[in-house]
Amino acid sequence: MKKTFILLSMMFWAAISFAQKNVKTELPISNNTNDISFFEKTYKIAMGYNDLVAATQSVYEILGTENSEVAWKDTLARLFLMRGAYDQAVFVGKELLTKAPDDIRLVEMVAVSLQSSGDAKQSLEYYEKLYPKTQNLYHLYQIIVLQYSLARLGECSANIDVLLKNPDSEKGEIDVNVGQGYTQKVPFKAAALNIKGVIAKQLNEYAAAEALFNEALKVMPDFVLPKGNIEDLKKEQNKVPEQINNQPKK
């Protein structure tokens, strides 16, 4: 009898488990009317609870009504960006840009989405459209970072020089990834000097590289990256004489 009970219990919990696996998770049921104000209300409630999935569903409902406005497509694109659905954000953003090609907000959103998805080449194209219109140092810095990642070092260096000449380059700040998941808020000037130093190091211009790293540290003494780059530079320079001395004599 006990064995029968155990067997029945196991069958019961297996059935429950199977049922749970086959239950589809659905978004909140909306009303069946064409009342846009209802969906606007559910959108606001969802955003209040930071429920981006429900908010997206509400925007879809709004777009499905007869009285929907184009602005809600903009909202949809931004929700995709916030959710990390970068491909969808790019798709909607590009669609909107066909009707409003000079909309700076849309160009920036597409540029950010492409950069976040790892498409450096396309992202750079959008930032290069954006910066001449905004003259925003953040946009110029992103151009520098993307050009460096694409090994377009000549253009990268030229844009670094443009940034360094800007009087606001020491005032404005950017979050820089310093490794192991950490970021550091750094003046644009210090961040750009560090990249220029890295480029000089790659070209084996060690003296110039060290000078650029030290210049970056003058702007921000506790900037982690140029400190580490100077240490690496010294290690590399010390290796050269060792390698020469260790070569077999003929």
Write up what this structure looks like.
By secondary structure, the protein is mainly alpha-helical. Among the domains are: 34-68, no CATH class; 152-223, Serine Threonine Protein Phosphatase 5, Tetratricopeptide repeat, CATH 1.25.40. It has twelve helices and two strands. The protein has helices spanning 2-21, 36-48, 52-63, 71-83, 86-97, 104-117, 120-134, 137-149, 153-165, 188-202, 206-219, 224-245; strands at residues 173-179, 182-187. The chain has a two-stranded antiparallel sheet with strand order 1-2. A hairpin with a 2-residue loop joins β1 and β2. α2 (36-48) packs antiparallel against α3 (52-63), α8 packs parallel to α10 (188-202) and α10 (188-202) runs parallel beside α12. It is elongated, with a radius of gyration of 27 Å. The protein starts with a helix and ends in a 5-residue tail after the last helix. Residues 1-30 have low confidence and may be disordered.
What integer is the average pLDDT? 86
CATH class of the domain at 152-223: Mainly Alpha
Taking pLDDT < 50 over at least 5 consecutive residues as the criterion, the unreliable ranges are: 1-30
Contiguous helical run count: 12
C-alpha geometry: elongated
* Strand percent estimate: 5-15%
- Ends: how far apart? 90 Å
Q: Report the biggest beta sheet as strand number plus sense, adding barrel if it closes.
A: 2 strands, antiparallel
Q: Which percent range fits the helix content?
A: over 70%
Q: Measured on Cα atoms, how large is the radius of gyration?
A: 27 Å
| CATH topology-level name of the domain at 152-223 | Serine Threonine Protein Phosphatase 5, Tetratricopeptide repeat
Kindly name the structural category. Answer: mainly alpha
CATH arch. level architecture of the domain at 152-223: Alpha Horseshoe
Strand order of the largest sheet: 1-2
> What is the string of SSEs from the N terminus onward?
HHHHHHHHHEEHHH
According to DSSP, the number of beta strands is: 2
